């Protein structure tokens, strides 16, 4: 009987805290802005920014000092690649450099005057490729385009040259290609920048908006001296875990909706990779959301003003994004940074989310990340309880806060 | 009659003790910037990821496959983390993120090479991770080409050809790649020259809005305006001047660290870049004043400036070029000072172009400084209305 009563009391406590928390959230425009406008707005804008997977037909200028049939053929082949488009035939290098300086082209292909001559003499001919390094995507396109054209051109020339030395037919064929290779781009075969960057950004948006929103709630409460108002009197001395759980319940309900939009709906709307099983992915994201909630509650009592979290920590979004290892691989990260990265739910969530949703991994293959997320959940649950406890104890001793000159 | 200068020094004399009494936010912002420098400079200290783990599926178990292994070991970019027996194992390892690519050498490859049957090896790369996938793919492709060349050379040698003749045969064309302004394709200098100034700009705009907003929040705005004799422009300049000086000094110091200490490529003039840095910081702060004028309520103004400051990284176009974005966003990119800062950096550091190429970008930054003129009266009105209400 006693136990039943306890459970009932427990649930009532949770419901009361949860309700009070909703009251605080919906009474604070800043938090609403962060939770809903930023939470949905960012993913939509990112999808507008990164519309193409790859850069196609990057404009290049050609300087053909050789003017022979081989160079003409090379140029046509380059133009035919999806990567580059020969937009200008410049008369001189100076002219081509001017075009590049004016950002009309992002690469220059230069055929020196001895190009045809060297080929005729069965020597190695050289082609100069100048890449615009202002974005590595230009570099990638220009370099790949020139390279594909060159490989094709090389095979053709090799074949004729073998013919000249008396090697012909099948034998020449195998000599041109003694060991062939096929390449298979695994996972997201047509993929490029968009399907690589946006999934990581989506996870970051969830974590950071929740963190700053909860931080703002904490700061606002401290500013107005209402830290205790949202905690029922009977929970102020003990059972801080119920406060933490009740609040988390309030956030999870709201963020459940946001996760559904950002991590499930948006990838389908914008045709980003979405091959994970919904059930498995939900299971994976549960400890992510929980640990982010607990981490946010832990830190929220540190903020003095509702805005101070944003002012001091916004830059961390960029650092955390790099810590996830999605851009700079984890295997090349200095150890201290890798250890640091383990402390943030986003690291494991990005790794797991990308691998499940883009690479078809199951929970089994991301078991390390999954386990780490649960470890962080437990860790931050403990710190959140402590943080609520210190918040409650600190309040009575502190001087009564000004109720805000115009905060109302 | 007080001169403009008197009013300004009045505001300044009021502001400096205020900062001194509550240096918390300025210190935190500075620490944040310093941490960002430390973080990014150590994170990418190699310039390019080195020794990326890849695997080999060696069904052949021959002299040839072992030699390929050794050749891969000799490269900087990748290392053979493991040798697997089946494609399935390697694929699972890829899903566990233990490797970024693998080379599949089917059974009988070496025998086929010897018998001139042109065997095929297969190269698998993880396309879900752009940088590591592409890099390891590129390395493996090079190794396959080299291996093919080695076989060709061996065959031709047996036919009694000289080295020069062989080279001409198997290497008819060579590409001379010139990576303009960044010869080593260094990621550090590529990313950090925009990310780090961007972080500082983000701090500058947030602190601008915060410090103006706090006057209202604490009910001291009236006193602040009075110190400037009711001139809102003077009040703002006086209040923000110490912050501006501090952030400009940090930005210039940052340039010194990047281009001096770390020796990032610099083809042009430091002075132009320094001028751009000064204008960039002022432009970000002006944007902050403007935003506060549009939304004279601190919480919302801070939220919007954070939103704006974070978006700047995407819309500056330093990773994904603006020309690849949707049309309306291309136009929108102009409203981010970080975009101009990046374009001037490219002109100066990568191309070493004459100053005339950067005039336009610098002028746009100057235009940002005029933005507050539009909304200053609103800020003043807001302060006065609160004053009257109190």
What does this structure look like?
The complex is a heterodimer of chains A (408) and B (390). The relative contact order of chain A is 0.11. In chain A, α3 links the parallel β1 and β2. The C terminus of chain A is likely disordered. Chain A is built from 15 helices and 5 strands. With 390 residues, chain B is an alpha/beta fold. Chain B folds into 2 domains: 245 residues, no CATH class; 119 residues, abc type-2 transporter like domain (abc type-2 transporter like fold, 3-Layer(aba) Sandwich). Chain B is built from 16 helices and 5 strands. The longest helix of chain B is centred in the middle third of the chain and has 31 residues. The model of chain B has no long low-confidence stretch (mean pLDDT 89).
| Rg from Cα of chain A | 30 Å
Average per-residue pLDDT of chain B, rounded, comes to: 89
Q: What is the count of DSSP helices of chain A, taking H or I runs of 4+ residues?
A: 15
- Please tell me the overall pLDDT of chain A: 86
Structural class of chain B: alpha/beta
Uncertain runs of chain A are: 396-408
Task: State the order of secondary-structure elements of chain A, H for helix, E for strand.
Answer: HHEHEHEHEHHEHHHHHHHH
The separation of the N and C termini of chain B measures 29 Å
Query: What general form of chain B does the structure show?
Result: elongated
Domain module count of chain B? 2
Quaternary state reads heterodimer
Given the C-alpha coordinates, what overall shape of chain A results?
elongated
Protein chains sharing the most extensive interface? A-B, 116 and 123 residues
């Amino acid at each position: 009987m006693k136990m039943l009563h306890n459970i009932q009391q427990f649930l009532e406590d949770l419901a009361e805290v949860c309700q009070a928390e909703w009251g605080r959230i919906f009474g604070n425009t800043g938090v609403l802005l962060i939770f809903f406008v930023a939470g949905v707005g960012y993913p939509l804008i990112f999808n507008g920014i990164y519309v193409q997977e790859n850069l196609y037909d990057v404009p290049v200028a050609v300087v053909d000092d050789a003017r022979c049939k081989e160079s003409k053929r090379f140029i046509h082949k380059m133009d035919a690649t999806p990567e580059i488009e020969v937009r200008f035939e410049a008369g001189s290098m100076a002219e081509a450099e001017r075009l590049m300086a004016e950002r009309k082209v992002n690469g220059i292909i230069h055929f020196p005057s001895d190009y045809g001559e060297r080929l005729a003499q069965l020597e190695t001919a050289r082609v100069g490729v100048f890449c615009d390094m202002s974005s590595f995507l230009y570099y990638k396109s220009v370099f790949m385009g020139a390279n594909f054209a060159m490989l094709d051109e090389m095979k053709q020339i090799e074949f004729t040259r073998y013919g000249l030395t008396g090697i012909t037919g099948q034998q020449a064929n195998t000599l041109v290609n003694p060991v062939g290779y096929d390449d298979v781009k695994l996972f997201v075969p047509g993929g490029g920048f968009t399907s690589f960057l946006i999934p990581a950004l989506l996870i970051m948006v969830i974590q950071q908006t929740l963190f700053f929103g909860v931080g703002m709630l904490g700061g606002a409460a401290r500013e107005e001296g209402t830290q205790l108002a949202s905690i029922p009197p009977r929970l102020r001395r003990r059972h801080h875990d119920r406060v933490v759980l009740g609040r988390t319940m309030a956030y999870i309900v709201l963020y459940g909706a946001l996760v559904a939009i950002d991590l499930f709906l948006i990838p389908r709307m914008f045709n980003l990779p979405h091959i994970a099983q919904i059930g498995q992915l939900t299971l994976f994201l549960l400890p992510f959301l929980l640990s982010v909630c607990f981490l946010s509650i832990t830190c929220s009592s540190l903020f003095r003003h509702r805005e101070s979290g944003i002012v001091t920590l916004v830059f961390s979004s960029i650092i955390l994004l790099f810590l996830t290892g999605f851009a700079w691989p984890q295997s090349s990260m200095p150890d201290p940074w890798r250890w640091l990265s383990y402390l943030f739910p986003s690291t494991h969530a990005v790794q797991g989310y990308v691998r499940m949703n883009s690479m078809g991994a199951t929970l089994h293959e991301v078991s390390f990340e999954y386990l780490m997320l649960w470890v962080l959940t437990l860790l931050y649950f403990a710190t959140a309880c402590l943080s609520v406890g210190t918040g409650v104890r600190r309040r009575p001793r502190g001087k009564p806060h000004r109720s805000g000159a115009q905060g109302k | 009659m007080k001169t403009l200068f008197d009013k300004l020094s009045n505001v300044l004399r009021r502001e400096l003790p205020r900062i001194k009494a509550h240096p918390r936010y300025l210190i935190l912002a500075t620490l944040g910037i310093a941490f960002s420098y430390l973080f990014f400079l150590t994170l990418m200290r190699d310039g390019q990821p080195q020794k990326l783990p890849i695997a080999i599926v060696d069904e052949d178990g021959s002299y040839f496959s072992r030699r390929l292994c050794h050749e891969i070991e000799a490269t900087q970019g990748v290392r053979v983390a493991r040798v697997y027996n089946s494609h399935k194992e390697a694929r699972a390892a890829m899903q566990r993120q233990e490797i970024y690519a693998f080379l599949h050498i089917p059974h009988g490859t070496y025998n086929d090479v010897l018998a001139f049957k042109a065997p095929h090896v297969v190269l698998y790369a993880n396309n879900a991770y752009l940088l590591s996938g592409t890099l390891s793919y590129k390395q493996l492709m090079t190794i396959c080409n080299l291996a093919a060349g080695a076989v060709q050379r061996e065959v031709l040698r047996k036919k009694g050809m000289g080295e020069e003749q062989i080279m001409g045969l198997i290497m008819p064309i060579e590409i001379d790649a010139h990576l303009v302004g960044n010869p080593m394709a260094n990621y550090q200098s590529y990313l950090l020259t925009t990310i780090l100034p961007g972080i500082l700009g983000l701090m500058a705009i947030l602190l601008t809005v915060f410090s103006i907003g706090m006057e209202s929040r604490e009910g001291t705005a009236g006193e602040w305006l009075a110190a400037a004799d009711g001139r809102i422009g003077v009040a703002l300049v006086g209040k923000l001047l110490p912050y501006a000086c501090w952030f400009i000094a940090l930005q210039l110091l940052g340039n010194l660290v990047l281009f001096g200490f770390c020796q990032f490529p610099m083809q042009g003039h430091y002075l132009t870049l320094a001028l751009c840095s000064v204008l960039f910081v002022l432009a970000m702060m002006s944007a902050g004043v403007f935003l506060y004028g549009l939304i004279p309520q601190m919480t919302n103004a801070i939220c919007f400036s954070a939103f704006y400051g974070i978006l700047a990284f995407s819309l500056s176009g330093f990773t994904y070029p603006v020309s690849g974005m949707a049309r309306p966003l291309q136009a929108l990119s102009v409203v981010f000072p970080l975009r101009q800062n990046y374009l001037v950096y490219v002109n100066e550091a990568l191309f070493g172009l004459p100053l005339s190429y950067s005039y336009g970008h610098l002028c746009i930054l100057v235009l940002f400084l005029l933005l507050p003129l539009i909304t200053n009266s609103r800020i003043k009105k807001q302060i006065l209305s609160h004053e009257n209400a109190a």
